[in-house]
Every structure is written in structure tokens, then in C-alpha cells.
Specification:
Elements: H1 14-33, H2 39-67, H3 73-94, H4 102-133, H5 136-140, H6 144-154, H7 158-170
Helix pairs in contact: 1-2, 1-4, 2-3, 2-6, 3-4, 3-7
Length: 178
């Protein structure tokens, strides 16, 4: 099993930190698509950083950007809805018993689709306004790296993601199954 090193910055401009994670997601997605890579290790690293990233954004980034009028309530809620969709796709990926099946490949493709949509939209509608409306020192002081690190320390498994998906359903961010 390969080990993936997940960067653990403790400070920095939140826009840069988010963009660094976005590039990490893309690299891990390439490994998830590559049948010669250690897909199980890539899946575990991807799940850990994806959940830590999303939770940090929802806890620290989106609320601060709303207070600074860099984004409105709709944009923040839309970002949370997309995180919920990503978490559902992640749960589907984590529930695949093996990494050498068509089911796994299909789950990777579904994940890539919702992830790429979110990354593009977030970079255009949330990060650009953050650069323009929030001074750099405030972007450095958001505390998102600390929250991200805490979530990385807690670890992620299918049960963790299932609980997040259920919370999103309860909050109306995802439609009920069936």
C-alpha cells in the first residue's frame, strides 16, 4: 500500500490553501482512475482531505465571506449543497468493496463529475470575490488550516461520510433516497 502525504499547512492565505487542495484532489482523482496505482491508498487519502477541506470551508470560510459581503447567502448555501453532493459521491466510492471493478470505475467517474463542477464554480464565484473583497491579512486569519488539520486528525471512514450525508439530508441539502 502506498502512502500519500497530505500537506498540512498551519497558516496562509485561505484562497491559496483552497486552491492547493483543489490541485491535490485532481492529482488523487488521476490516481483513482489509474488501474496501476494503489487505488485503495488514493481513495483513503482523497476521502480524508476532501472531508477536512469541505468541513473547514463550511465552518470558517463561507461564514466569514458572507459577513464580508464577498458572497451572499445563496452562494454559501449552494456551496454547501455541492459539498453534500460530493459527500454522497464519496460515500458511494467508499462503499465499493474493491478497486478493480466496474462499480468502482463508475463511482470514480461520478465523483469526478460532481467534484470538477464544484471546483470550477467555487473558484469562479467564491474565491475570486474573496480575493477582491477580503484583505489578505483577513484571509490569512480565517483559521481554516487549523480546522482542516483537526478533521484530518479525526480521520475519515464510510461511517463518518454517511453521518455527513444524513446530516445534509436532514438539513435539506440533499433529497431523501427513494
Amino acid at each position: 500500500m502506498s502512502d500519500y502525504t497530505i500537506p498540512r499547512p498551519v497558516s496562509g492565505d485561505v484562497v491559496d490553501l483552497i486552491l492547493d487542495d483543489h490541485r491535490l484532489f485532481e492529482a488523487l482523482m488521476r490516481d483513482l482512475r489509474d488501474s496501476s496505482s494503489d487505488r485503495a491508498a488514493a481513495r483513503a487519502a482523497f476521502a480524508s482531505v476532501l472531508i477536512a477541506h469541505g468541513e473547514a470551508e463550511e465552518e470558517k470560510v463561507y461564514p466569514r465571506l458572507r459577513r464580508k459581503d464577498a458572497i451572499d447567502a445563496h452562494e454559501a448555501e449552494h456551496g454547501e449543497e455541492e459539498h453534500a453532493e460530493i459527500n454522497q459521491a464519496l460515500l458511494d466510492l467508499l462503499e465499493c468493496a474493491g478497486t478493480d471493478t466496474q462499480k468502482f470505475d463508475d463511482a470514480v467517474e461520478a465523483m469526478n463529475e460532481v467534484l470538477q463542477h464544484h471546483l470550477t464554480e467555487e473558484e469562479l464565484t467564491i474565491l475570486n470575490p474573496a480575493r477582491e473583497e477580503v484583505p489578505e491579512q483577513e484571509r490569512r486569519d480565517l483559521g481554516a488550516a487549523e480546522v482542516r488539520g483537526r478533521h484530518l486528525d479525526e480521520g475519515v471512514d464510510a461511517e463518518t461520510v454517511r453521518a455527513l450525508v444524513e446530516r445534509a439530508r436532514k438539513d435539506g441539502l440533499l433529497e431523501d433516497e427513494g
